[in-house]
Amino acid sequence: MTATGPFRRRQRLLDGTDFRRVFQQSDPPRSSDAYLTLLARPDNGLGWPRIGLAIGRKVTLRAVGRNRIKRLARESFRAEQAALPPLDVVVLARPAAAAADNATLWASLARNWKRLRQRCGQSSSSPSESTATS
C-alpha cells in the first residue's frame, strides 16, 4: 500500500464546476461494487488524472469514518495515477464502506481503478501489479 509522491493541488477536482462536468455526462464510464462507485470523465484536457471525493454523512455520521475512506482513496489514487489516462474521477462511497476494513477498501479501489482503465481504453496493468510480479 505504498504511494508515490505527494498529493498535489493540480491532482484534485477543486470546485463544483469540475464535479458537475463528471456528474452531468450522459453516460460516464463508471465502476461500482458494494463499497464504492467511481465515475469518470475521460480526456480531461490536462494530460494527467484528477480525483474528487464525495463521501457524505449518509455513509457514516462520524467524520473520522469519512476521513478514513477519503485517506484510503487518496493513497490508492497516488499509487495508481501513473497507470491512469488523463481523466477526472469522482469517488463515491456507499454505507457498507464505513464497516469495511482498510484492506477490503484498498482491494475494492484496486478493482475499480482496473475497471476504469479498461473502460477508458488503457491496459489493465498497474504499477503495483507490475512490481509484484517482478
From TrEMBL:
GO terms for molecular function: 3'-tRNA processing endoribonuclease activity; ribonuclease P activity; tRNA binding. One of its GO terms (biological process) is tRNA 5'-leader removal. Keywords: Endonuclease, Hydrolase, Nuclease, RNA-binding, tRNA processing. It catalyses: Endonucleolytic cleavage of RNA, removing 5'-extranucleotides from tRNA precursor. InterPro entries: Ribosomal_Su5_D2-typ_SF (IPR020568), Ribsml_uS5_D2-typ_fold_subgr (IPR014721), RNase_P (IPR000100). Pfam families: Ribonuclease_P. SUPFAM superfamilies: Ribosomal protein S5 domain 2-like. GO terms for cellular component: ribonuclease P complex. Gene3D superfamilies: 3.30.230.10. Its EC number is 3.1.26.5. PANTHER family: RIBONUCLEASE P PROTEIN COMPONENT. Consists of a catalytic RNA component (M1 or rnpB) and a protein subunit. Belongs to the RnpA family. RNaseP catalyzes the removal of the 5'-leader sequence from pre-tRNA to produce the mature 5'-terminus. It can also cleave other RNA substrates such as 4.5S RNA. The protein component plays an auxiliary but essential role in vivo by binding to the 5'-leader sequence and broadening the substrate specificity of the ribozyme. This is Ribonuclease P protein component. It comes from Thiohalospira halophila DSM 15071. The gene is rnpA.
